[in-house]
């Protein structure tokens, strides 16, 4: 086993330091992306909860006025449509966010490989 020269050891140490820095940088980026994703999911859950509470409030008001079953069914259908639209919009937002995050992580990894 040949002994390594001081220069080789310094190069190895610098390489390992750079590798560790890159790992931390990527880990931090992934952490930020996860936080953004969770924030968006929580925002979506809050919007869905608000939609549900609005529906319950409106249904209660209709029931107090002794509204017909047809009115209640129309309200339920409206709720289902709005909930469906909201979910589709939220899925598109989440997909867009995850795609942006994927490409930024991919870009960072490419930059690290160049070094």
TrEMBL record:
All residue ranges annotated as the Phospholipase C-beta C-terminal domain in the record: 4-113
Protein's recorded name: Phospholipase C-beta C-terminal domain-containing protein
Keyword set, alphabetical order: Coiled coil
Coiled coil: 6-43, 73-100
Pfam families the record matches: PLC-beta_C
Domain of life: Eukaryota
């Amino acid at each position: 086993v040949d002994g390594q020269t001081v220069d080789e050891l310094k190069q190895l140490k610098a390489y390992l330091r750079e590798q560790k820095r890159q790992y931390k940088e990527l880990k931090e980026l992934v952490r930020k992306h996860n936080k953004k994703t969770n924030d968006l999911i929580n925002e979506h859950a809050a919007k869905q909860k608000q939609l549900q509470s609005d529906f319950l409030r409106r249904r209660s008001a209709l029931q107090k006025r002794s509204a017909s079953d047809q009115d209640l069914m129309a309200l339920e259908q409206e709720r289902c449509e709005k909930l469906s639209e909201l979910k589709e919009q939220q899925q598109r937002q989440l997909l867009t966010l995850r795609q942006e995050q994927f490409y930024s992580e991919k870009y960072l990894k490419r930059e690290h490989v160049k070094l």
